[in-house]
Amino acid sequence: MIAKIRIFLALGFVAAGSLVLVPLQILSMKTGWWPETFILKIWHRLIIRALGMRIHVKGALSDKRPLLVASNHISWTDIMVLGSMVDVKFIARADMEGWPLIGMLSKLQRTVFIERERKRSSGDQANEIASRMAKGDAMVLFAEGSTGDGNIVLPFKSTLFGAASMAISEGAAEQVFIQPVAIAYTRLHGVPLGRRHRPLAAWIGDEDLMPHLKVLLAEGALDVEVHFGEPIAFSKGSNRKETSKLMESQVRAMMQAALADPRPSR
Q: Is the pTM of this model over 0.85?
């Protein structure tokens, strides 16, 4: 009963907040009166509060541009976590575009939707990402191409780094900075999550969104750590596969460090 009340109140909180924030975001996009990410950060923080999540940060988003952020991916909540803290735009899988509310808000923050199974469209998508980076947007790439279970980092797909190569080859930039970022869900109600229970936070494969949302709302009080690594310069002579492996190893090391010694809840 308590869980149902928590879910009802949290959804009402998000719905009420969205009724105010969505028109403001549309106004921002049309007028440019304030940065587009300003309202979005408030909306992401609203979602984080409704979910009862506590965020712990190590390091910071690089101020170097053009910037591609290479992160692991555990859940749809990763977007809320990162979006609540830093001024970034996202690269997301195409089916998210049709999701209730989240799909709409994704469009309102100019998310680039990619169809990873359609090779014919990959060039246009990479070109769009490259163009956005060249204009100064920090773009978040979930480089595994899928979501993990919260225990391990899946192999990074080097093809997803094609936007960095295209930005250089098209003359939009002489080099692109790529920054590794690790996300780890570490505690539930202050108790460290073990290997068996970490998948609670994970949203894997074709799992429906609403059942997972209800589980998170019912549980609440999740701690998540975000570790920012040092950016590297990717230039014309850089090897995309080697860069992908380097980012993967750095993200894996940061994630394992967070899981091995999680920060205390506050």
A: yes
